[in-house]
Write a structure and sequence with these properties.
about 270 residues, mainly beta, Immunoglobulin-like, 2 domains, five-stranded antiparallel β-sheet, 17 strands, about 0% helix
Length: about 270
């Protein structure tokens, strides 16, 4: 990690920098605590920094031994890592508060830099069968393959498996949606939400397996329904564009996975 530091005024203390990585359970799995300026050569502590001068430092964090290979972490069950940073003084021991550009306190003493995904060494995913990889979502991602049942019962759940692939990085956490739509546009079932691994953590050209269970309404009529998936920004709800292999836009801004037959439970059934 490379950081660019600049002192706005003279300081008379040598601050300590900490960089920590927390997993989903808020357990610290990697950390680095060093005097700020310790990476430079010769060492220049913050008490010797000149206002207006930019100081560049790079930090390496080593995962704790049990996380080195991440062999117990599957793509289907990702471990989301949060990277945080802060400064503190050694004597007395106190964290420095974080303020905005105008000096207003933000009520915290650390910065959340970003979230990253802890990936397995080699993802092993059997293909799901259906392929829409030639279609682009937002010019940023594609659906490599998916699996969709041919029928589902009203009042139950539609099991949908998808393998997404990012073609490049993004800083946005898009909302993924799966909608089951009837002939008249009626909504028979839907599931909207962020994947377990938010899209800002997706590594380019790395398969991301997502398995969803889409609730189907109990009073939905029997018939044939289309299954659409896509992404949108939140807040705002603006859908990401979808382009076909020839570059033409898809009108509904969604990928049509196929059709599913919704049936009604038999009388006297469970």
């Amino acid at each position: 990690m490379r950081c660019y530091w600049e002192a706005l005024t003279d300081v008379d203390e040598d601050y300590i920098l900490y960089v920590h990585m927390h997993d989903r359970s808020n357990i610290v799995i990697a950390q680095r605590d060093v005097p700020l300026g310790d990476i430079s050569y010769p060492w220049i502590g913050t008490s010797d920094w000149k206002p207006g001068v930019v100081y560049v430092e790079e930090y390496w964090l080593a995962l704790r031994r049990q996380y080195w290979r991440a062999t117990d972490i599957q793509v289907e069950r990702p471990n989301l890592i949060t990277l945080v940073m802060g400064l503190y003084t050694r004597e007395p021991l106190r964290n420095l508060p974080v303020t905005d550009a105008d000096g207003n306190p933000l009520g915290m003493d650390y910065l959340i830099l970003r979230r990253v995904g802890l990936l397995p060494d080699e993802p092993e995913m059997p293909p799901l069968g259906r392929d829409l990889s030639k279609y682009l979502v937002g010019g940023w991602a594609q659906l490599d393959d998916y699996e969709l049942p041919s029928e589902v019962e009203a009042g139950s759940e539609l099991t949908l498996a998808m393998t997404w692939e990012a073609l490049g990085p993004t800083d946005e956490d898009y909302v993924l949606f799966a909608h089951v739509i009837g002939e008249e546009g009626e909504l028979a079932g839907q599931l909207d939400g962020q994947p377990d691994w938010p899209t800002s953590t997706w590594r380019p050209h790395w398969p991301m397996r997502i398995e969803w269970r889409v609730p189907i309404g109990a009073n939905v009529a029997e018939g044939t329904y289309r299954v659409l998936v896509g992404m949108y920004r939140w807040p705002g709800g603006e859908r990401l564009s979808v382009t076909a292999p020839g570059g033409e836009p898809v009108p509904e801004m969604a990928l049509e996975l196929g059709e599913v037959e919704i049936t009604r439970p038999l009388p006297g059934g469970p």
